[in-house]
Amino acid sequence: MIVESRELRMKHRIPVVKTERFWKGLEEGKVFKTVCKCGKSYYPPRAECVCGATTEWAEVSGEGIVECFTVVHSIPAGYEWSKPYRIVIASFGDVRVMGWSNEELKVGDRVTLYTAKDESGVWKVWFKKV
Amino acid sequence: MRKFFNFFAVFIVMRVGVVGAGCSKFGQRDVTIQELAFEAVSEALKDAQLSQEDIEMSVVGCVGTRGYELMPAVVVNEYCGFAGKGPIRVEAACATGSAAVYTAYSSIKAGIADIAIAIGVEKMSEVDTATSAAIGGRAGNYLWEFHFYGTTFPAYYAMHATAHMAKFGTTEKQMALTAVKAHRNAAKNPKAHFQKEISVEDVLKSRMITYPLKLYDCSPIGDGASAVILASEKAVKEHGFDPVWFESVGYSSDTSNMSMREGYVGLKATRMAAEMAYKGAKITEPLNSFDLATVHDCFTIAEIMAYEDLGFCKKGEGGKFIENGESDFGGKIPVNTFGGLKAKGHPLAATGVAMVYEVFKQLREEAGNLQVDLKHYRALTHNVGGTGHFCWVFILGR
Ligand SMILES: [Zn+2]
Question: Cα of A55 to ligand 1 centre, how many Å?
Fold first, then answer.
C-alpha cells in the first residue's frame, strides 16, 4: 500500500546582485568573466577574489577550443520544453566556458561564442564552429 | 612528569577497526527510509554481537533530496534505537556514505567514542525519473550550470567520456565491458538491484541517456541502506572483536563548477585522495598491494577513469585494463566483485558504507560465491561524490 505525500512546490528567488553585470551582459550579447590584480581569473564570474580583493569585469571573446561535450536525451524536470540538447565546455585562454550548441561540435573544434535566449526565455551562452 | 606523559601520549596511534557490517537489499524497495535503515543496522549489530546500548555515537549519512523526509537523521536514528546518541547527519553527494564512515572514524580517533555506527541510507524511488534527474543535476553548481544548461549527473560524466574518447581512443565497447562485468558479479549477489547478466550488445543497443552514455552505462535509481560499526583498539580488546582495520584514509575535493576544472579525462579529487591514502599506508605499487578494490562506477566511464586515477594503470590505458580482464576475478586486481554501483545499485548515501561492508566481508572471507583469494589481506574503497566534487579512499586490512 502506498500513500501520497502532501505536495511541496519549490521555486527559489536567487539574488544575483553581485554578478548583475554578467546577467545584463548576456542580454547585450556579451559574456563576462572577472579578473583580479593578483592574477586569478574567474568563470563563472565572481565579484570578490578569494584573496579578498574586488575583481574587475572583462569580456570573454575570440576563439575557443572544445574540451568536451554531451547531448542530453534523458530530459530533466525544468527542461520539458526542450528537444535533446548539446552541452559543450570550451576553453578561452585562462577560463573555460559552458554553453549550448545547435551544431555537431567535436572535441578539439574551434568555436566562437554568442548569447541568445533558449525556448524557455533564459539568456545563455551558445557556441558556433569557426 | 604529567607533562612528559602527555607528550608521549600524542604519539600512541590508536587504530580504528570495523567490527560489524550490514547491508539491505538494494533496488525499488517498498519500505520507509527508517525501516530500510533498520535492515542494515540490525544486521550490523547482530554481526558485531552488540546491542544499541553499546553504541556511543551514531552518524547518519543521507543525501535525502529525493525522499519525503527532508531531514531524515532523527527519524532514522529513533527507529534504529539510537535516540540520544548523535545523530550527526552528513552529506557529500554520492560520497555521503564515506563521509559518514569518516565522521564515525574521526569521533573514535578523537577519543569522543569507543564504538560508533555509520549509517548510509537513501530512498531514491519516491519521485519520478525526470525529477530525480533534475535533483541529480544539482550535485554541482545549480546557478551557473544546471540553471542555464540542464547539466544532469549523467551529462557530467558523459562530458568526461567524450574527452577521454577523443584523447585516448577509449571506445563505447570498452566502457560496456565494465557494465558486463558488473552485471556478471551482481548476478551472484542476492543483495544486488539487478541479478541478470547482460552482453556488450545489450549495452551498445540500449537507449541513449546522454551521449555517449546509454541506459546500461548508468547505475540505476534505487533504494538501499548500509551500516558499519567502528571500534577503537581499546574496545576491540575489551569485546574480543575480529576487526578489519583502517590502515589509512585519504580525502579530497574539487570545484563545484565543471567549467573550473583543469581537465576532463580524470578526477583530480581521486588522484589526491589516493595519494593521501597510499602515503598513509606506505603503498608504492597500488596494483600489487590489494586483494580487491571497490571503485566508484556510477557510470562505466567512471570505472575506467578510476583505474587510471588510482594508479592501477597509466592515464589513458583504462580501456585496455578492462579489455585485458585485469579487474576481473583472477586478474591483477578484482574490482567491484559485488556488482558495483552499476549493477548492485547506487542508493547515494548507502554506497560508501556498502563499499566498506563489501571489503569487510571479503577480508573476513565471508563473501561466499563472490570471495576472492586473499594474499595481501588488504583492500581499497574508492567513493566519489558528484563528479569528483568529493572523494574518499579507504585502505582496510586484516
Ligand atoms: Zn585576487
Answer: 7
| Contact list, B158 vs chain A (CB under 8 Å) | 70
Q: Which residues of chain B from 8 to 47 reach within 8 Å of chain A, CB to CB?
A: 30
Show residues of chain A in contact with B264, CB under 8 Å. 67-68, 89
Question: How many domains are there within chain B?
Answer: 1
Query: In sequence order, what are the beta bridge partners of A54?
Result: A48
Distance B270 CA to ligand 1 centre (A): 27
User: Distance, in angstroms, between A50 CA and closest chain B CA?
Assistant: 13
Find the helix or strand (DSSP H, E) in which A41 lies: strand A41-42
- Dihedral (Cα; A10, B350, B178, A86), 10-degree rounding: 10
Residues B351-377, mean pLDDT to the nearest whole number: 98
| E strand or H helix at B245 | strand B244-253
- Would the pTM of this model clear 0.90, i.e. be above it? yes
Q: Is B155 on the interface with A (CB under 8 A)?
A: yes
Cα gap B152→A88, rounded to integer Å? 13
Q: How far apart, in whole angstroms, are the C-alpha atoms of residue B122 and residue B368?
A: 26
Q: ipTM for the complex?
A: 0.97
The amino acid sitting at B106 is S
> What is the pLDDT at residue B8?
54
Q: Is the peptide bond preceding residue A44 cis, with omega within 30 degrees of 0?
A: yes
Q: Which residue has the cell 562530458?
A: B159
Q: Is residue B37 part of a domain?
A: yes
**Cell numbers given for B160:** 568526461
* Per-residue pLDDT band at B279 (split at 50, 70, 90): very high
Instruction: Identify whether residues A93 and A52 lie together within a single domain.
Output: no
Number of neighbours of residue B140 by Cβ within 10 angstroms: 22
The CATH number assigned to the domain holding B21 equals 3.40.47.10
Burial class of residue B230 (count of CB atoms within 10 Å of its CB; 0-12, 13-18, 19+):
buried
Confidence label for B7 from pLDDT (cuts 50, 70 and 90)? low
Q: How far is CA A39 from CA A32, A35, A45, A46, B253, in A?
A: 16, 7, 14, 14, 23
Query: Is the same domain home to A86 and A118?
Result: yes
Phi, psi of B363 (to 5 degrees): -70, -20
Q: How far is B163 from chain A (nearest CA, A)?
A: 5
Contacts of A45 (CB under 8 A, 6+ apart): A19, A21, A22, A32, A33, A34, A55, A57
Could you tell me the three cell numbers for B122? 537513501
Residue A115: inside a domain: yes
Angle between helices B96-109 and B348-363 (to 10 degrees): 60
Query: Where residue A78 sits, what CATH number does that domain have?
Result: 2.40.50
Residue-wise pLDDT tens digits, A47-86: 999 999 999 999 999 999 999 999 999 999 999 999 999 9
CA-to-CA distance for B213 and A92, rounded, in angstroms? 27
